[in-house]
């Protein structure tokens, strides 16, 4: 069907997709935006943590630098100096002196003996330990400074480090890594791989000391961030989705509506005239033709009029469509008209709505103007199924048509309810007996009786009679014998395109 091309399901699909598209796109943009915000946050957090750790290590390094020249002196002589650094410097928990890789003096124990292994220290300077004999299971960061046989070790309490991880990190997971060991915000020292941080992971090394910091978020953080930061944008996205779906629906409705499709076809000149000959009842000579509309649809091919004429009538487009058909007919047949020996009948189907204004008179005048004077009879075929109201306007219209020499045929006669008064009021010239009656010829006696009554009635009204749908010689002979003036049907010719009709007409 040319006028129901889009199914409901495909329309619904387009509507749903149009609604989902802005929501999906908006969601993707918000996702990217959230990821970017989280990456920015981890970068800033890692940088801040490094700044804090560097500051703490500056203190321990300073203490070590001050003590290093004392290495080698007796523990008794330097003990106080070691303790002084512990009290004076923030973050420094203990200080120790080393001679030839041997820790021999400590601020905690005084004289002490312990081997120092440089390999324990990352880049020879930092060792993250999980406590010492005094405070086992408590993180401790040892800073080592060495020069020849002299060495100084200063320690930083893991408590301060964990505090930084906890306070700066807050929503971010922050880890401090020194060589193979790493410290988490709970103050525990671990060995080996640190846990993966799938969202916005950022690793940053200190430029001055041998450690680095990892910041990031666990799985699902992007979604959590979006939910807490963009709730109003979500509502806006849903609103846009709904608006977009509504627009898509209304555009589809408009573009797939029958009247839109018919208007498109009219602009593309897809409505073309076909011609079916009408012959004399006795001589069987071609005395005229009925113009029948066809829709030359680009996809569906040639479309029968009963599939689109009702829509055209409903939308009011039937008037310009008929006008176009009349113009095309005049263009095709007008040039041949000087050769017509007798007035050739040209039947045009007209709907009741076309009779609502005097414009029809102008259409007919223009049409007749394209033919040699007196060479044709323009016959307007009005169906008995839609009778025209006898108003002042319509009576004036038919009066003017009559003056112009236009004839009126009552189409599908016998299927409606026209009366004698009606036929007189509108100056009807021909009755076209509906093909359903013609089909009764050769059938049972009752059917034939109905047909005979219709023919009899037509004769009594003193009007020209045309029989439609004549398909057999039996029907043709029967109708001629009963005084039917004109015959139309497949027996004499099917509706054909303009070129074929002109060829047949000129060779007839
Ligand atoms: P209609 O005015 O009664 O036209 C006669 C219909 O009978 C045509 O169908 C024609 O092809 C068909 N026909 C002719 N001879 C035979 C036959 O021997 N056997 C059979 N079975 N059918 C035959 P078509 O062309 O399909 O048109 C159908 C209807 O569409 C027309 O009925 C008419 O009411 C309407 N129509 C066609 N063109 C126009 C038009 O330009 N304007 C308007 N308003 N209606 C039109
Ligand atoms: Ca007709
Ligand atoms: Ca008819």
State the CATH superfamily name of one domain: EAL domain
Parts with pLDDT < 50 across at least 5 consecutive residues: none
| Shape, per Cα inertia axes | rod-shaped
DSSP helix fraction: 40-55%
Can you list the strand order of the major beta sheet?
12-13-15-16-17-18-19-20
The total count of helices amounts to 15
Radius of gyration equals 51 Å
CATH architecture of one domain: Alpha-Beta Barrel
Please describe the biggest sheet, giving its number of strands, its sense, and whether it closes into a barrel.
Answer: 8 strands, mixed, barrel
Q: How far is it from the N-terminal to the C-terminal residue, by CA?
A: 37 Å
- The level 1 CATH classification of one domain is Alpha Beta
Q: Count all strands and give the number.
A: 21
**Strand fraction:** 25-35%
Short summary of the structure?
The protein is of the alpha+beta class and 508 residues long. It contains 15 helices and 21 strands.
Keywords for this structure?
508 residues, alpha+beta, Beta-Lactamase, TIM Barrel, six-stranded antiparallel sheet, binds ligand C2E, binds calcium ion
What does this structure look like?
The protein is α+β, with helices and mostly antiparallel strands. The protein is 44% helix and 26% strand. Among the domains are: 61-158, Beta-Lactamase (2-Layer Sandwich); 278-289 and 318-507, TIM Barrel. The chain contains 15 helices and 21 strands. Helix 1 packs across helix 4, helix 1 runs antiparallel to helix 5 (231-255) and helix 9 (359-369) packs parallel to helix 10. The chain is rod-shaped and about 150 Å long. One calcium ion is lined by residues 411-412, 432, 434, 468.
């Amino acid at each position: 069907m040319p006028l129901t091309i889009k199914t409901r399901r495909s329309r619904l699909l387009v509507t749903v997709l149009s609604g989902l598209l802005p929501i999906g796109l908006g969601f993707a943009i918000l996702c990217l935006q959230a990821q970017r915000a989280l990456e920015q946050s981890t970068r800033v957090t890692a940088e801040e943590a490094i700044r804090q750790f560097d500051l703490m290590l500056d203190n321990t390094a300073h203490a070590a630098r001050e003590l290093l020249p004392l290495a080698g002196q007796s523990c008794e002589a330097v003990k106080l100096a070691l303790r002084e650094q512990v009290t004076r410097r923030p973050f420094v928990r203990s200080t120790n002196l080393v001679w030839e890789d041997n820790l021999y003096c400590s601020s905690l124990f005084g004289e002490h003996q312990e081997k120092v292994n440089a390999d324990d220290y990352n880049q020879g300077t930092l060792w993250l330990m999980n406590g010492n004999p005094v405070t086992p299971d408590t993180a401790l960061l040892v800073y080592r400074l060495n020069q020849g046989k002299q060495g100084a070790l200063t320690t930083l309490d893991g408590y301060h480090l964990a505090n930084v991880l906890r306070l700066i990190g807050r929503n971010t997971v922050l880890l401090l890594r020194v060589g193979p060991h790493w410290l988490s915000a709970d103050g525990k020292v671990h060995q080996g791989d640190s846990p993966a941080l799938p969202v916005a992971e950022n690793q940053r090394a200190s430029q001055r000391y041998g450690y680095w910091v990892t910041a990031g978020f666990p799985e699902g953080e992007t979604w959590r961030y979006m939910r807490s930061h963009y709730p109003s944008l979500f509502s806006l996205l849903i609103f846009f989705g709904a608006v977009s779906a509504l627009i898509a629906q209304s555009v589809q409705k408009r573009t797939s509506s029958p009247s839109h499709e018919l208007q498109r076809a009219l602009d593309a000149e897809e409505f073309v005239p076909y011609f079916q000959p009408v012959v004399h009842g006795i001589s069987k000579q071609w005395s005229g033709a009925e113009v029948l509309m066809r829709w030359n649809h680009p996809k569906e091919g040639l479309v029968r009029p009963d599939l689109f004429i009702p829509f055209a009538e409903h939308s009011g487009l039937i008037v310009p469509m008929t006008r176009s058909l009349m113009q095309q007919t005049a263009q095709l047949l007008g040039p041949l008209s000087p050769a017509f020996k007798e007035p050739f009948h040209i039947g045009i189907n007209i709907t009741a709505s076309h009779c609502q204004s005097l414009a029809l008179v102008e259409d007919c005048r223009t049409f007749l103007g394209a033919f040699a004077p007196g060479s044709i009879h323009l016959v307007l075929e009005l169906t008995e199924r839609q009778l025209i109201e006898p108003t002042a306007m319509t009576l004036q219209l038919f009066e003017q048509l009559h003056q112009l020499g236009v004839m009126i045929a009552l189409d599908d006669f016998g299927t409606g309810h026209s009366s004698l008064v009606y036929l007189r009021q509108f100056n009807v010239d021909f009755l076209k007996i509906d093909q359903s009656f013609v089909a009764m010829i050769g059938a049972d006696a009752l059917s034939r009786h109905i047909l005979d009554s219709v023919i009899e009635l037509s004769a009594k009204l003193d009007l020209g009679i045309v029989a439609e749908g004549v398909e057999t010689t039996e029907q043709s002979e029967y109708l001629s014998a009963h005084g039917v003036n004109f015959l139309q049907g497949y027996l004499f010719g099917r509706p054909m395109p303009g070129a074929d009709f002109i060829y047949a007409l000129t060779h007839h």
